[in-house]
Amino acid sequence: MFHVNEILQTIEMIKSRHLDIRTVTMGLSLFDCISDDKAKTAAKIYDKVCQRAGKLKAACDTLSARYGIPIINKRVSVSPISLVAASSRGFAEAALALDRAAKEISVDFIGGYSALVHKGMTDYERQFIMSLPHVLSVTDRVCASVNVASSKAGINMDAVRLMGEIIKEIARATADKKSVGCSKLVVFANAVEDNPFMAGAFNGIGENDCVINVGISGPGVVCGELESVKGKDFAEVSECIKRTAFKITRTGQLIAKEAAKLLGANFGIVDLSLAPTPAKGDSVARILEELGLESVGAHGTTAALALLNDAVKKGGVMAASYAGGLSGAFIPVSEDEGMIEAVRKGALSLEKLEAMTSVCSVGIDMVAVGGQTSAATIAAIIADEAAIGVVNNKTTAVRIIPVEGMTDGEVEYGGLFGTAPIMKTSPYKSDGFINRGGRIPPPIHSNKN
Amino acid sequence: MVKKMRAVISVIGKDKKGIIAKVSGGLFDVNVNIEDISQTIMGDVFTMIMMVDCSQSALDLSQINDLLQKIAVEMRVEIRIQNEEIFNSMHRI
């Protein structure tokens, strides 16, 4: 029999501290859908997604009822469409098929409209990238990502420059919807193949045919537990976070295992990320403040985040049979109530945010900048993030929204995307640097053989 | 022997007469066996934890939950039923 306090602790975490399973994501290989005909490829994609993931929502509902824990998002990630549709060149057709399938099976996002161009870009990959503004403006649920750099290959600066231009085009193409298309595109360095979180999820080329990857959550739980070590030293803080992360992750492990069983899929990974939402009490920023900072963005924020990120992994990795994905604290601006407030009051700048991304996942995430920001400046922001990822052997990403027609104020996206205050970029130009083109070579420590 | 399907039922709310009777009566009607029970009252907050075995019941967990939610509304308390595995996962290594 469990002790009453154990039962009540679990209930309290779920009821008052927003403990939930953030996402159960089914990774699907679409390589068996490849054909040289656009319509045929699209039809095969639609059929496979509907057939394999058709019961995803029902399975998650069953598990949610069985264990009494909410499962917030049910999602699907697929093989990079730049490869799946390379032969037929039916990129937009494939995207529309994914969008229809997502609606048919009631998943809110489907990821994998993706390309991996960190070393070089083929003709079909360029054509794929050029399709992004159209695709992200005519689909609702398709998420895209492009990997432009890796620790092994360096930074493909031609791709970086192109992505700066493409992001501007997406912003214009979805200007009537506050440039929301940009929120569905992630530009990566060192993208991972088993990420369950949108918008950057895709099913990597080394993955199984059908896998279940689970993203946990629980910033509110960590924040609540930290109240019990107020004023104590960092050893106790770290222990407290580790213990909590262990418990949170074990629930993720349970759900991942059972979901894989119900759906006849392989168990993939548990992603040990603390993922915030705009809801009060579900914020990563507030954890950093609980550690003793007046506001996130104050000096000391990077150190606090490094401690948090490391302790979450140490606790979580013991609880999961396979940890993977992004596994680190997320710091999206518009999706975290504490981050939004810090930007509003001028406590958090883009520069400080960039420093924070060197010690956690994932990067400049859900940041809105003024519509006047140039393509070269956006490319330069991507290049800076990619450099942090490449040199530190970690994943970094940029999900930035140059909001068409706005120079300041804030943009309300609603739901999980939250509210994005427009952040200031440097007034100085980076064009000369971005226009050089070519590839920045990988760092010397990538030569490990 | 049928494998046990253990679940934890938690009842939290303002203390009043008949909570245990209502819940245990409801469970008896649908052939859910109560294996252990503990209750505490702090101030006027009543907390009851029951360990039950649902393997003999014709109902599944969500149907048993529907039944419990009717009692919860009637008695104005919160009732949850959760498969014991979530507590095993979280609190046992």
Walk me through the structure:
- The complex is a heterodimer of chains A (449) and B (93).
- Chain A is α/β, with parallel strands linked by helices.
- Chain A has one domain: Anaerobic Ribonucleotide-triphosphate Reductase Large Chain (Alpha-Beta Barrel), CATH 3.20.70.20.
- Chain A starts with a helix and ends in a 9-residue tail after the last strand.
- Chain B has one domain: 2-Layer Sandwich (Alpha-Beta Plaits), CATH 3.30.70.
- Chain B contains 3 helices and 4 strands; from the N terminus they run βαββαβα.
- In chain B, strands 2-3-1-4 form a 4-stranded antiparallel beta sheet, sandwiched between helices.
- Chain B starts with 5 loop residues before the first strand and ends with a helix.
- The mean pLDDT of chain B is 91.
- Chains A and B meet through α1, α3 and α10 of A and β1, β2, β3, α2 and β4 of B.
Distance between the termini of chain A: 53 Å
What share of residues are in beta strands of chain B?
A: 35-45%
> Which structural class do you get from the secondary structure elements of chain A?
alpha/beta
Top-tier CATH class of chain A: Alpha Beta
Largest interchain contact: A-B, 20 and 23 residues
Strand arrangement in the largest pleated sheet of chain B: 2-3-1-4
- Kindly report the CATH topology of chain A: Anaerobic Ribonucleotide-triphosphate Reductase Large Chain
- Describe the oligomeric state of these chains in a short phrase: heterodimer
The portion of residues forming beta strands of chain A comes to 15-25%
Q: Provide the number of structural domains of chain B.
A: 1
CATH C-level of chain B: Alpha Beta
